[in-house]
């Protein structure tokens, strides 16, 4: 273990050791501590602290700044427990700081080697008596550290780690499996989210619970049901064998009611994300809000938010556990925000919708073999927090090439929010990044939900998968099937979406480096584990101008791999994948391009709605109130304020949560694409946020910045 600093305060250590209550009995809302992801088991981003309020927030100043040794994108929502802050570096090394001063206590820089494609939204804390542990993930592993020292707990799993593939079956052995979002604690269990591939090679994203002491697998919920399980008939026969269908994973995280013993799991879409001809049916439990018995994984109830998803419209964030007043009675409820701008609200125990939900007719797919679902559910209340339709009049008035954009709109396939993809460009709106995004929504005890929303249209199209059969492999064909959607037919990439150009890559990188990236991934680019070594060599040869056909060895019969590295039965791939932008890289549709919304879930009515975010180049021209895309979520407090960053302009903003009025703002050292945390140490309230992100063209960062009153 590398300790840049030793624990310097004996008092701090004694305070930690004196806290011997079992962690899972703590209060639902954050107070002095921010002891769970997004503030508590209800994921409400809410704190009862009120020292900083609407009258004094304008006096905030920087209390401390901590710089990590590495730099990149940070989405971490740090934990603060008994005066210690726990966070993750951009390259996913966990650390602990004195939360009052930002002084480093430990950094666990040798518990696991650097994994390029991993990203972390935070950690999980568990304690029972004096046993205090931090859990985090890197690659396909869940790690356990001593919370006081950062030293790996050798008795947990295999010398401090356990495999996230344990409950996925043999078919996952050679597939991409990581976890981006922290696990959820229930007694002596940690229930884990998973991120898997979104292609035909995807592992199945079963929900798994591990023993917090031993790392042993305790229970599994099968998100693609087996033959004897409910929901099996919503898939083709034997889909659970994971030969051509995968996904249905919880990547966004969960909420838990520990008193009821129920964990609420938003399940993602089935893979391949954009074509479902090989998975005809409604596809339970993909795209569901799922209520499970937290101790056993037993199904209690579910509601499918999207049937037979072919537009990657999976739920993007943990649900919010709230209590609302309806018809004179208090109801414990669960609210789920979606990428397409809806809020679904259910009775937490029964799963009964608390506002009517309508099944509305949707356009049919024109792609051979596809059977899009004829209807999709829409809540009557609250009304959606994003626009649900576009017309020519919605093309941006600020675009210099507006006529060209109108022509693209006319030639594109578009018939509302669930328009199935075709072979021509298809407009997807709300776009692939929300509506709501992974930062999720905040909620206060009054039943008001606060959510930042994106309004960005995308252009997508399908194309036929090129044949890769036979004894010779073409690198160009591999590129066309696996790389062209993001990097483009000319290999130019897309700087506006942080997709690197591959033109003249031989002048910047070595072939071994490129092979390493393809095999291991980088940032949000997954590892292409489905590709055989020969295919990887072929596509690298193509990229480096040494195109040649490479003989592929015969598929092995290695157990559990299903030979998916050498074949796929999905006949279509994404051939176009880009945001709908004008000639200057701004959204091609009219503002607002991002909003901040306050919704009264007791009534289903909006309290306020404002544009959120800005484009400095337009602000300089006097064009205000456009809004912009944002990532990360808000925090609300008993002090009457809402605190949020999340935008490319690097601003950290505070609003009056009752009115939506901006009270105070400042600049961060890098964009804060993360959800803040708030806590109290030594009688002083702090806000802290991780700064660093490469989304939206923003630069990398490496700092955590804390604010407090003078």
Question: What does this 3D model show about the protein?
Answer:
Helix 3 packs across helix 6 and helix 5 (511-520) crosses helix 6 (533-543). 56% of the residues are buried. The protein is globular, with a radius of gyration of 24 Å. It has a domain at 489-567: Cytochrome Bc1 Complex, Chain D, domain 2. It is built from seven helices and 43 strands. The chain has a five-stranded mixed sheet, with no helix packed on it. The chain has a four-stranded antiparallel sheet with strand order 2-43-42-41, with no helix packed on it. By secondary structure, the protein is mainly beta.
Q: Radius of gyration from the CA trace?
A: 24 Å
Write down the CATH topology of the domain at 489-567: Cytochrome Bc1 Complex, Chain D, domain 2
N/C terminus separation? 36 Å
Question: What percentage of amino acids are in beta strands?
Answer: 25-35%
Tell me the quaternary state. Answer: single chain
What would you call the shape? Answer: globular
CATH top level assignment of the domain at 489-567:
Mainly Alpha
Which range best describes the helical content: under 10%, 10-25%, 25-40%, 40-55%, 55-70% or over 70%?
Answer: under 10%
Mean pLDDT: 89
Going across the major beta sheet, what is the strand order?
1-37-38-39-40
Looking at CATH, the homologous superfamily of the domain at 489-567 is: Cytochrome c-like domain
Number of strands: 43
Uncertain residue segments: 1-27, 554-567
Tally of DSSP helical segments: 7
């Amino acid at each position: 273990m590398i300790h840049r600093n030793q624990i310097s305060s004996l008092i701090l250590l004694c305070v930690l050791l004196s806290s011997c209550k079992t962690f899972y009995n703590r209060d639902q809302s954050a107070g002095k501590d921010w002891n769970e992801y997004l503030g508590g088991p209800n994921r409400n981003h809410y704190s009862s602290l009120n020292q900083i309020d609407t009258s004094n927030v304008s006096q905030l100043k920087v209390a401390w700044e901590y710089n990590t040794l590495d730099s990149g994108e940070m989405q971490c929502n740090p934990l603060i427990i008994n005066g210690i802050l726990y966070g993750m570096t951009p390259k996913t090394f966990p650390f602990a700081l004195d939360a009052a001063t930002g002084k480093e206590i430990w950094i666990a820089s040798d518990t696991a080697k650097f994994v390029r494609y991993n990203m972390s939204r935070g950690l999980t804390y568990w304690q029972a008596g004096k046993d205090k542990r931090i859990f985090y993930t890197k690659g396909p592993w869940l790690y356990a550290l001593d919370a006081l020292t950062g030293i790996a707990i050798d008795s947990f799993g295999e010398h401090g780690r356990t495999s996230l593939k344990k409950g996925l079956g043999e078919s996952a052995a050679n597939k991409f499996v990581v976890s981006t979002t922290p696990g959820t604690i229930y007694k002596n269990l940690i229930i884990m989210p998973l991120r898997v591939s979104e292609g035909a090679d995807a592992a199945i994203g079963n929900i798994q619970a591990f023993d917090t002491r031993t790392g042993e697998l305790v229970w599994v919920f099968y998100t693609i049901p087996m033959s004897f399980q409910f929901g099996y008939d919503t898939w083709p026969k034997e889909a659970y064998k994971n030969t051509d269908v995968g996904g249905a994973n919880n990547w966004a995280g969960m909420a838990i009611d520990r008193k009821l013993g129920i964990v609420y799991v938003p399940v993602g879409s089935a893979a391949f994300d954009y074509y479902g001809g090989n998975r005809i049916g409604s596809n339970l439990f993909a795209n569901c809000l799922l209520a499970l018995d937290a101790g056993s994984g037993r199904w209690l109830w579910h509601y499918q938010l999207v049937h037979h998803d072919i537009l990657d419209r999976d739920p993007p964030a943990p649900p919010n556990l709230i209590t609302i007043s309806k018809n004179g009675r208090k109801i414990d409820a669960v609210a789920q925000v979606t990428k397409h701008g809806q809020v679904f609200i259910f009775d937490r125990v029964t799963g009964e919708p608390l506002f009517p939900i309508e099944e509305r007719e949707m356009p049919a797919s024109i792609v051979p073999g596809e059977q899009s679902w004829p209807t999709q559910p829409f809540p009557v209340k609250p009304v959606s927090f994003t626009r649900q339709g576009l017309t020519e009049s919605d093309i941006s008035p600020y675009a210099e090439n507006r006529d060209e954009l109108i022509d693209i709109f006319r030639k594109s396939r578009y018939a509302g929010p669930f328009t199935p993809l075709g072979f021509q460009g298809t407009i997807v709106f709300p776009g692939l990044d929300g509506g709501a995004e992974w930062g999720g929504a905040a909620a206060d005890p009054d039943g008001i939900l606060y959510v930042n929303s994106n309004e960005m249209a995308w252009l997508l199209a399908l194309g036929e998968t090129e044949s890769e059969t036979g004894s010779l492999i073409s690198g160009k064909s591999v590129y066309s099937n696996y790389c062209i959607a993001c990097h483009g037919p000319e290999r130019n990439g897309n700087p506006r979406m942080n997709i690197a150009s591959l033109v003249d890559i031989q002048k910047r990188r070595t072939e071994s480096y490129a092979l390493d990236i393809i095999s291991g991934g980088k940032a949000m680019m997954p590892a292409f584990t489905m590709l055989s070594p020969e295919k990887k060599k072929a596509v690298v040869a193509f990229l480096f101008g040494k195109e040649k056909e490479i003989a592929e060895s015969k598929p092995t019969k290695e157990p559990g791999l299903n030979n998916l590295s050498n074949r796929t039965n999905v006949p279509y791939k994404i051939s176009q994948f880009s945001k709908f932008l004008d000639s200057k890289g701004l959204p091609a549709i009219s503002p607002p391009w991002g909003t901040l919304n306050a919704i009264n879930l007791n009534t289903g009515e909006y309290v306020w709605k404002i544009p959120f975010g800005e484009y400095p180049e337009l602000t300089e021209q006097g064009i205000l109130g456009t809004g912009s895309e944002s990532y990360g979520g808000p925090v609300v407090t008993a002090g009457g304020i809402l605190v949020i960053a999340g935008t490319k302009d690097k601003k950290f903003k505070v609003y009056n949560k009752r009115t939506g009025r901006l009270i105070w703002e400042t600049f961060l050292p890098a964009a804060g694409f993360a959800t803040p945390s708030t806590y109290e140490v030594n009688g002083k309230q702090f806000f802290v946020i991780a700064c660093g992100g490469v989304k939206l063209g923003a630069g990398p960062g490496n700092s955590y910045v804390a604010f407090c009153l003078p």
